[in-house]
Amino acid sequence: AYRFNRSFARPELFYLKITENCNFQCKHCDIWKNKDTKDLNISEWTKIIANLKTLRKDFDVTLSGGEPLLYGNFWQLVETLQRNKVGINLNTNGSLITEEIADKIIENNFKKVEISLYSLSAELHNRLRNSDNAHQSAMQAIDYLQDKNNNTKIVVAFLLTHDNIDETIDFVKYFSNIGVWTTIQSLDSNIQPMNERTNFDN
Fold first, then answer.
1. Greatest extent of the chain over all pairs of C-alpha atoms, in Å
2. Three-state secondary structure call for residue 185
3. If we measure between CA atoms, which residue out of 50, 49, 53, 43 comes closest to residue 10?
4. Opening angle at CA 15, ends 172 and 80, nearest 5
5. CB–CB of 162/200 below 8 Å?
6. How far apart are CA 62 and CA 17, in angstroms?
7. What pTM did the predictor assign?
8. Nearest alpha-carbon partner for 19 in 51, 42, 53
9. Which residues contact 47 (CB under 8 A, 6 or more apart)?
10. What would the pLDDT profile of 18-57 be if each residue is shown by its tens digit?
């Protein structure tokens, strides 16, 4: 940058993986196996945020994991970000968003909440999540946020695999019709552990 007498662009968005803890054991993901990882404490995150502010005064962060709502100091971290005038986004599986949590998300002016979902089919979503009620809780979270929402953007991340590719159009139409944005994330390259990967065309 100095050689060309100009600075590199300063990022406007930072992704903060605040925990590797997760309440699901998804088939596409191994993060739940990381039992020995220690989360940073709130003092460490406060220092990180202060350092980021030296790069750029105005920026947003996306809180992710694991499941970020499992981070023990989650709301303290939100308070720290608010105090530093940092925009907040949340990537979540939606299972821990109760009506009370939805209220707090809206009250704290989150810019965006992105909830990951495999399918409109409860059977398929639950099977890929290895959970009996993952679909119900995610859909309920969307309802809670829509009911209470003012300015927070609600997004559903469609986790695209060979199992659900045929429902892509119906999925996007369904959420478009209820006023929810959709993003599509392809996962087949990571649907199995690296040492067990097979060709899904067979």
1. 57
2. strand
3. 53
4. 115
5. yes
6. 8
7. 0.87
8. 42
9. none
10. 999 999 998 888 887 787 889 999 999 999 999 999 988 9
Residue 29 gets which letter from DSSP? -
Q: Which residues pair with 156 in a beta bridge?
A: 115, 182
Whole-angstrom Cα distance, residue 7 to residue 59? 17
DSSP 136-173: HHHHHHHHHHHHH-SSPEEEEEEEE-TTTGGGHHHHHH
Evaluate whether 76 touches 50 at the Cβ level (below 8 Å).
no
- Of 53, 113, 111, 57, the residue nearest 87 (C-alpha): 111
* CB of 125 closer than 8 Å to CB of 83: no
Per residue in 137-160, is it b (16+ CB within 10 Å) or e — as a string?
bbbbbbebbeeebeebebbbbbbb
Q: Which residues contact 39 (CB under 8 A, 6 or more apart)?
A: 18, 19, 20, 21, 71, 72
Contacts of 80 (CB under 8 A, 6+ apart): 42, 45, 46, 49
- For residue 96, what are its two tokens? 């821990």
Task: Residue count of the chain, please give it.
Answer: 202
Q: Quote the CA–CA distance of 51 and 53 in Å, as a whole number.
A: 5
Which position has the token pair 């499992």?
Answer: 70
- Tell me the pLDDT tens digit for each residue of 68-126: 999 999 999 999 999 999 999 999 999 999 999 999 999 999 999 999 999 999 999 99
What are the beta bridge partners of residue 116? 157
